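lol ok so funny story. i was supposed to be doing the assay writeup but got distracted and ended up predicting the structure for this chain instead. priorities right. anyway since i did it might as well share w the group, maybe its usefull for someone
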Amino acid sequence: MELILWRHAEAEPGEADADRVLTGKGQKQAAKMAEWLDSTLPNGCKILVSPTVRTRQTAAALGRKFKLSAELGPGTTATKILAAANWPEGREPVLIIGHQPSLGRLAALLVSGTEQDWPIRKGCVWWIAQRIRADLTETYVRAVMGPELVLK
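and the output, tada:
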């Protein structure tokens, strides 16, 4: 299974956290990452998105159908994200568009086996995969990409 974690792009500050919108820079970040992801993601990839405005705007840049998932909102846990993605039982790749610190904690858990506060910068993607070799399950980082690395 493959799990792609995409932190929402830069958003305006504000009191109503769920209603914060992307900044101009955030819109550019989302567009760059969407271009890279669109050329890389398989067509059958399931896309799950936190219901906040900034995550929906980030997802919209990709131009693919997505499903809102309340389990991915701010303050969620790594365990809830894994359940929403059906990790590791699922067959199809899953793209999660969400928030810090939850995505960083999930990345740490999958890669190191321990939940820790790992930073994931705004607009960045961590692509984590799992495979079975000689009856041994291996979880590994397939890619880490940031909008500033996407070539135009």
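The mean pLDDT is 95. DSSP finds four helices and six strands in the chain.
back to the writeup now i swear
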